[in-house]
Structure formats: C-alpha cells, structure tokens
C-alpha cells in the first residue's frame, strides 16, 4: 500500500477489499462473450428474416428497429437488467444495450410523471453518447469532405 496513507485510510482499504464481492475475470469474460454473442445471433436471424422480404438496407432497418424494441421491452419488464448482471459488457455493447440505457432511467423515474420523470430522465445516460457521437461524426464528415476536395 502507499506509504503516504494514514492508518485510518489503510484500515478502510482493507475493509473495502474484504467486503467487496469477488468476481472471476475469466468467468465474467466468457459470460459476456457468450451472452453478447447470443444477442448478436438473434440480430443476425432477424436480419436474415428481413432479407427474405426486403433489400439489405430495409433488412438492416428492420433488424435495428426490432432489436431496439426487444431491448426496450425487456428493460421495461425488468428482464434486461437481470441479464446485464450476468452478462456484464456483453449486454451493453449490442444495440439492445443502447435501448436499455434510454429506457432504464425513464422507468426509474416514472413515478415523477411523464414530463418531470420519464421525459426529463430518458436521455440521462444516452444523451452524452448521442451528443458526442453525433459531434464526432460531424467532425469526421468535415475532415472527409475537406480531404476529398483538397486531395481528390
């Protein structure tokens, strides 16, 4: 431990280490991989189903909409949160995790009403992701446009 810590801080660190749940890194990684993979398999199956009736762009839209709907519905039913406790990052990375990040805060604050609760808390987690994702895509688009016009 760091020698600059006082005795009370050292005792607190020991206490936290003793009380913190132990997790198996290998088991957690395998569960994240397997459950995340299963979510992706569902997405692929939906895409294949959509491809029977639609072109590739339509099938991709069909898949995206259904995966978001499934993620939001499972979150509303409380199932996706339990899945997330087991799957960890495997449930966060797919698009269903994005749906969960929008719906979960809204569900938590629904008692406060549609405007003050659901409406104001819906993008509490996903809002920064959207802002910086859209901002980064604009910057990359401008760089791409400039590079194409200057060097193309």
Q: What is this structure, in a nutshell?
A:
The chain has 152 residues and is mainly α.
How would you describe this protein?
With 152 residues, this protein is mainly α. The protein folds into two domains: 22-121, no CATH class; 123-152. Helix content is 80%, strand content 0%. It is built from eight helices and no strands. It has helices at residues 7-19, 25-51, 56-76, 79-87, 89-92, 95-108, 114-121, 126-151.
Please report the total strand number as a whole number: 0
Tell me the number of structural domains: 2
- Globular, elongated, flat, extended or rod-shaped: what is the shape? extended
The computed structural class is mainly alpha
Mean pLDDT across residues = 82
Order of helices and strands: HHHHHHHH
Low-confidence stretches: none
Strand content: under 5%
What is the first-to-last residue Cα distance?
Answer: 57 Å
**Number of DSSP helical runs:** 8
Helical fraction equals over 70%
CA gyration radius, whole angstroms: 22 Å
Q: How does the major sheet shape up?
A: none
How are the elements arranged and paired?
Blueprint: H1 7-19, H2 25-51, H3 56-76, H4 79-87, H5 89-92, H6 95-108, H7 114-121, H8 126-151
Helix pairs in contact: 2-3, 3-6, 6-7
Keywords:
mainly alpha; 0% strand; extended; 152 residues; single chain; 2 domains
